[in-house]
Amino acid sequence: MNCPRCSVQMCIINVKKLINYHMHDILLEYEAYECPACELIASTIEQTADLQKQMIEKMGEV
User: Which residue among 11, 14, 45, 54 sits deepest, i.e. has the most Cβ atoms within 10 Å of its Cβ?
Assistant: First the structure.
């Protein structure tokens, strides 16, 4: 995948992000693409769908 901002080849990274939902901390882990030149982070439709499913599952546990 090429960066939409600067056209450099992007690399797949694993992202861990802690969010707060109704005063509960939820750790989300997902794959995304990062541009080594401009540090833009982007994801595919499939990666975004997986993240949304994970969020729904974890928020339902709260």
Answer: 54
